[in-house]
Amino acid sequence: MHVEIITREDLKQLKNEMLAEIRQLIKPEDRQGKQWLKSAEVRKLLNISPGTLQNLRINGTLRFTKIGGMMYYKLEDINRLLEGGNQ
User: Fold this and answer.
1) Taking a C-beta distance cutoff of 8 angstroms, is the pair 23, 81 a contact?
2) Which of 4, 23, 39, 52 is the most exposed place for a label (fewest CB within 10 A)?
3) What is the predicted pLDDT for the residue at 40?
4) What is the DSSP letter of 35?
C-alpha cells in the first residue's frame, strides 16, 4: 500500500494555483472592463446554489447592489472573497 502525505505547503500551493486559474477566468480585460456581475454569473463562477449566494448576502460576506429586481456584485469583492478576505 502506497501512502502519500499532504503537507500544509502542498495545500498552500494548490490554493495559489487554483486562485491563479480563477483569476485567469475572470480577468477584467477578458470581460471588456466588466466590473459588476449578476447573480447567475456569480453562482456560476463560484459554483454555488442560489441559496448559498443568498446566505452570503444575508450574513454580509458578499456585498451587493440591488437595482430594480436585479442583484449586482462587484468583481473586486468576489476576488477578495476568493482570496479569503471578507472585507
Assistant:
1) no
2) 4
3) 94
4) -
> What's the grid cell of residue 51?
441559496
10 Å CB burial of residue 22 (0-12, 13-18, 19+) is middle
Using a CB cutoff of 8 Å and minimum separation of 24, what contacts does 6-10 make?
none
Cell numbers given for 65: 447592489
Side chain identity at residue 72, one-letter code: Y
Give dist(CA 32, CA 61) in Å, integer. 26
Task: Split the chain (87 residues) into runs of 10 and give each run's mean pLDDT.
Answer: 90 90 70 79 91 95 92 91 71
Let me know the angle formed at the C-alpha of 64 by 71 and 27, rounded to the nearest 5 degrees.
90
| Cell numbers at 41, concatenated | 454569473
In which element (H, E) is residue 37 found? strand 36-38
Choose among 26, 29, 31: nearest CA to 80.
26
pLDDT at 45: 86
